[in-house]
Amino acid sequence: MDCETYARELAQAARRASRRAAVLDTETKNEVLEAMARRLEKSAERIAAANVLDLEAGREAGLSAAMLDRLEITPRRLAAMADGLRQVAALPDPVGKTIDERVRPNGLKITRVRVPIGVIGIIYESRPNVTVDAAGLCLKSGNAVILRGGKEAIRTNRVLGEILGEALDEAGIDPAVVQVVAVADREVVNRLLKMDAEIDLIIPRGGEGLIRAVVEESTIPVIKHYKGVCHVYVAASADQEMALEIVDNAKTQRPGVCNAVETVLVDAACAREFMPRLAERLGEKGVELRGCERTRAIVPGIVPASEEDWPREYLDLILAVKVVDGVDEAVDHIARYGSGHTDAIVTRDPEEGERFLSRVDSSSVFLNCSTRFSDGGEFGLGAEIGISTDKLHARGPMGLEELTTYKWVARGEGQLRG
Amino acid sequence: MDCETYARELAQAARRASRRAAVLDTETKNEVLEAMARRLEKSAERIAAANVLDLEAGREAGLSAAMLDRLEITPRRLAAMADGLRQVAALPDPVGKTIDERVRPNGLKITRVRVPIGVIGIIYESRPNVTVDAAGLCLKSGNAVILRGGKEAIRTNRVLGEILGEALDEAGIDPAVVQVVAVADREVVNRLLKMDAEIDLIIPRGGEGLIRAVVEESTIPVIKHYKGVCHVYVAASADQEMALEIVDNAKTQRPGVCNAVETVLVDAACAREFMPRLAERLGEKGVELRGCERTRAIVPGIVPASEEDWPREYLDLILAVKVVDGVDEAVDHIARYGSGHTDAIVTRDPEEGERFLSRVDSSSVFLNCSTRFSDGGEFGLGAEIGISTDKLHARGPMGLEELTTYKWVARGEGQLRG
Fold first, then answer.
1. Residues A348, A244: one domain?
2. Helices A129-140 and A154-170 meet at what angle, rounded to 10?
3. Cβ neighbours of B405 in A, within 8 Å
4. What's the CATH number where B304 sits?
5. Inter-chain Cβ pairs, chain A and chain B, closer than 8 A
6. Domain count across chain A
7. CB-nearest partner of A363 from B110, B393, B407
8. pLDDT tier at A87 (50, 70, 90 boundaries)?
9. Option in A358, A368, A380 nearest B413 (CB)
10. Domain containing B333: what range?
11. How far are the Cα atoms of A380, B230, B232 from residue B335, in angstroms, in the given order?
């Protein structure tokens, strides 16, 4: 079968299945999620057999140890996947929720009701747990999903998809509610990205290169974040001990993730005191600082930052630092170089704090806490399908509700427009 | 200046202006809206002078009488524009509204707050009142706007833009909050549609051709509706008198608009009685019916409908009619041929009504009322920037709230992630 035909069959099957998925009741969806979890647990050997083949192929292809590690499904990771499905079952069902209601002067009762989006395509890299997590979230929100993981995990993902499909089938639900792209050819993805009549939303998860390629190709709306160039601004009035703790946590607790801090801006009024303390604290943790000229005048020996450092997402133990003259310059710097992900201020001045929170136009803005809290779980959404730095539909961590849209429902008794 | 440079300057000026517009307080915005209204009223002669030139050029270019009529700014239409701005001033300001708030176990206070989208591009055809209406709605929602009307109205739109800009300038606000594209060259639009770093949203309003061209070209998210192929399904249990009134109203009250009905589906169980009554009633109103074979067996002499009639938006006194076997076939027909705009059922059976409302995946679904109610004003939104048949962000009539997004705000006292 050629790529176009294969992609079209996937997309059309998903569209058909989505109509049924949209009207499943909560209890049925939760039962299927539980059945999926049980079936995964019982299929440890079958999953391991496929996973071993992916791991062998990965070793032959020269994948790094880190990539091979991400690819591996250990018993603990399998248990976590099953557990994740049960957690999704325990979350409230967003579908059918009335957003608002009003009765018009002519007696028309008008409500807005949450409904599933329809068909969602998820494109992601190595970790096979995304296959299960994303399938669970899409099912719970009443959507059909097409999952396309990395080619290095294709055997594992295929088996995971089969197992989830069996649980659907057993419950009398069209297994095309969850489909895994079983062909590695990149052309299948490119074809899917043009099927805007069948697929309603694309969520790419992975490196900036993957995401840019998806955005370029897609005629379907894409929700995404390219990168996380997160800032912490340390104001003159900041509790410096708190600021050190926050920057340390935001940089070193997990440097390789998108909500880690990449640039610290320090008000000139406290830089002379704060910068040496910051350099010492982070130096102990093995963090390389790259500083502006004013920083280097205070702490000589710091690597000079170039213009390329300000928009960089290091994802590593490297931190850009810059002295600025007050909150407005910090806000301007973030507007110019930030990525709209998460930016924080540390201050004891409530007015300055509110000025920062209202003027920084990022999906998450924080006062006196670590940027690392920018996360669906930490925000209390229960589970997260991804993070959006876009302006439309969903911004910041996306939970179940962000996988729904709404429709207007009007109920009348024969009203006519005059 | 070449098109690229001109477009870039517009877009960058809008982006700069949007940062200021986003933090204007409600009172200031309302005062500017009032000042805009007054300035429009005082500028009747200046507007008429530009409008006359557009009308003359339009006549020379052979525009139809209907198009020339839409282009003309009569004193009454000018008053309506000013009045529209005052109505927008009276609407609640969506910006800054807290959508939800929660306190996490670690004490973090997390809120989601409505904020403006940023820079919005509106692309529309002939009627110059859109220039003023859209500018008012974008200003009230804290956005900067770039307005590109039809080239036949360019002189009028330019003058309207100048007047709105003067009111902004007088209030000490960057007039680039409202910019009118003053160059007719289509290439300027094409360049704007690629400036996804500066422009956040494109709303095209007009015929399907215009909208498809915008979607093809744009790398910026587009909210749109291509067309309105609205259905009324008449169930077996329908009050037939009510059904006749609703279909008549939905077809003939204003046939040229997107929420007029284009296809009526009739349950076979009542078709023998209902179809002749429908043919008689609409025949009196000069409506041409195009029927399926089963309809023609009941009412001979009706024009046969072809496969091309079902997805057609006539925008005229033409109506496709089809006999179906029950609500599920009606739902299937709408899924296949509908445009996701507005679809209604007429029934006395509440269960059947709810089945239709939940299974038809259109932006607006109605029970026992005319499709013509699908409108921001009729829904109580106050004013409407357009209608969306998309799934993401906004669906159905879009009011002020749909011109905003949200951001996550977290306030802490030094919280770190463990």
1. yes
2. 30
3. 391-392, 395
4. 3.40.309.10
5. 199
6. 2
7. B407
8. very high
9. A368
10. 230-378
11. 36, 11, 13
Mark whether B17 and B133 lie in a shared domain.
yes
User: CA A347 to CA A332: how far, in whole Å?
Assistant: 18
Asked if A410 and B366 count as a contact pair (C-beta separation under 8 A), the reply is: yes
Interface of B with A in 51-80 (CB under 8 A): none
The per-residue b/e assignment along B132-160, b for 16 or more CB within 10 angstroms, e otherwise, is: bbbbbbbbbbbbbbbbbbbbbbbbbbbbb
In this structure, is residue A388 part of a structural domain?
Answer: no
- Whole-model pTM: value is 0.94
As given in the structure block, the two tokens for residue B207 are 């015929």
Mean pLDDT of A257-261: 95
Rounded to a whole number of angstroms, the distance from the CA of A132 to the nearest CA of chain B is 24
Beta-bridge partner residues of B103: B109
Q: Which positions ≥6 away from B380 have C-beta within 8 Å?
A: A102, A104, A110
Question: What amino acid is encoded at A96 in this protein?
Answer: G
Asked whether residue B155 falls in the same domain as residue B239, the answer is no
**B298-328: pLDDT as tens digits:** 999 999 999 999 999 999 999 999 999 999 9
CA–CA gap between residue B30 and residue B79 (Å, rounded): 18
**Pair (B163, B219) in one structural domain:** yes
Question: DSSP string of A74-104?
Answer: -HHHHHHHHHHHHHHHHSPP-TT-EEEEEE-
Q: What is the crossing angle of helices A327-337 and A350-359, to 10°?
A: 20
Asked if residues A297 and A265 have their Cβ atoms less than 8 Å apart, the reply is: no
Question: CB of B258 within 8 A of CB of B341?
Answer: yes
pLDDT 10s digits, A273-302? 999 999 999 999 999 999 999 999 999 999
